[in-house]
Every structure is written in C-alpha cells, then in structure tokens.
Specification:
Number of domains: 2
Order of helices and strands: EHEHEHHEEEEEHEEHHHH
Helix content: 40-55%
Shape: globular
Number of strands: 10
Strand content: 15-25%
Number of helices: 9
Structural class: alpha/beta
Radius of gyration: 18 Å
Length: 260
C-alpha cells in the first residue's frame, strides 16, 4: 500500500450513493491485501474529495468498479471473499448482493489489456478489460482513509486504493474514446479541473512531457486532443455536469502534450 495517504469525510447525497459506498466498503474488506485500484465513477468521486475543486462536479454512481491484475483474476481469493460476504456472481466479473427494498449492491472487477467491450475468459470466468488499467496498477496509489456519513446517519469507514489523477485521466480518456459516454466526458472535465487547481500536489504528472508521446500515455493524449478538437469544432454540447467545451479544450492543451 505504498503511496500518499489522505483522509476524507464524505456525505452521501442519495440512496443510490449509499448503495455505492456500501459496495465499495464490501470490496475493500474482501480485497484485504490483494492489489487493486478503485476505478469508474467512485474513483473520480474520491479524487474530488482528495483534491477539493469548485469546478469539479461529482456524479452519483451505485456500483463499485475495481481493477485487478490478471493473476488475481485467475485466482479464487477475491471471488471467494465476495461470496462469503453475501454476493452472488451474476457473471464472471460482476457480483450482486441484496440490500433490502428491492435494492442491490453491485461490484464489478476489471482486468488490464484485452479488447474493450469484449469479454475474456480468465480462470473459467469472463472478465471485461479496462484500457489504461496497467498504468494505474503499476503506479503508486492514493491510500484514502474514508469516512462516509450515510443518509440514515450511520457511518462507513474504509481504506481504499485509488489511482492518482494522472492515471485516472488516462483511464477515463481511453474509455471515453471507446464508448463516447457522457458520464466519461463529465469525469474527464472534473479530472482536468483538479489538475488545473492542484497540479503541484499530484504525485505524478508526465502527460505534458516526452513520456506522453509513448505507450498508454500517448494513446490517452491522442484521445484527449481528439476531444479538444471536438470542443473547438462545437461538436461537444454544453452541459451542467461539466465545464464549458472551450475550457475543456484549453485545459487539455495546457496540461497534455500533443502527440505528433
């Protein structure tokens, strides 16, 4: 668990948020000493709390996504620990647990490499891949001590491993290029705003240098500059869930080198 350590307190804003944080707490407990990274919407939420930024806009998500390496995916340890905590494997990498009132907790496990959107068999179970996850797993995480105040007044406390902002932006840029989802665009906007305000505090930022011209960072830089071009051409709609397109474009050009 080597990495910067940050303590935050989070107020859940909805029943969906309650469910999401409960799923994250279960995931953390099940993982134990297993190496993983929290990804998806909760990753961005945690980073917004780690680096408070007025223009970063959190969004609600009710499931917990974690990235694991292929050796962990092939093993039974994390799988068995989730089952012991009342989860049922509904697919190779997706788990659900009843939470009362017809609500469900959901945990999804993702692996590096592979083709985005294509299920891959690992250890007799099917897994979806997350582009850019290898970089997130290789980099030191933020170790976040989290206290969540639920709507009921109850609290959850857990310590979760989160990619820092650069690795998170690489993940989000690559998944946005794959599916062009509005939620990914909103997350990219928030991560860029965090970078603008807190860049000196980030544990790593290499997207603006020669390293950005190589490997996974280059792929992410390509995707981000494609997004900047779309913003410049008025092909990205203005939306309250993110910064204005001209600002998104300007932040990309300021913080991300343009691959040749």
């Amino acid at each position: 668990m080597n990495g910067a350590r940050i303590a935050v307190t989070v107020d859940s804003a909805s029943r969906a948020s309650d469910l999401g944080y409960q799923a994250v707490a279960d995931l953390v407990e099940a993982a134990g000493e297993t190496e993983y990274r929290l990804v998806g919407g909760h990753m961005v939420q945690m980073l917004i709390h780690a680096y408070p930024t007025a223009l970063a806009i959190p969004r609600t998500t009710s499931d917990a996504d974690a990235g694991i390496d292929r050796a962990t995916a092939a093993g039974q340890g994390l799988h068995d620990q989730l089952l012991e905590r009342g989860y049922t494997a509904t697919a190779g990498n997706s788990y659900e647990k009843p939470a009362g009132d017809d609500k469900t907790l959901q945990v999804d496990l993702l692996v590096p490499h592979g083709t985005p959107g294509v299920t891959e068999q690992i250890g007799e179970r099917g897994f979806d891949s997350a582009p850019g996850l290898s970089l997130a797993l290789a980099a030191a995480p933020l170790v976040m001590e989290v206290k969540v105040r639920l709507l009921s007044g109850d609290t959850l406390e857990f310590v979760v491993l989160v990619p820092d902002v650069e690795a998170a932006l690489v993940l989000k840029a690559l998944v946005w290029r794959h599916r062009f989802a509005e939620k990914d665009l909103s997350d990219i906007s928030s991560l860029l705003e965090i970078t603008q305000e807190h860049r000196d505090r980030l544990t790593s930022w290499k997207l603006d240098g020669d390293v950005a011209l190589k490997g996974t960072r280059k792929d992410a830089a390509d995707a981000l500059h494609m997004l900047a071009g779309m913003c410049d051409e008025a092909r990205v709609a203005k939306d309250s869930s993110r910064s204005a397109p001209p600002r998104i474009s300007a932040l990309i050009k300021r913080h991300v080198a343009r691959p040749s």
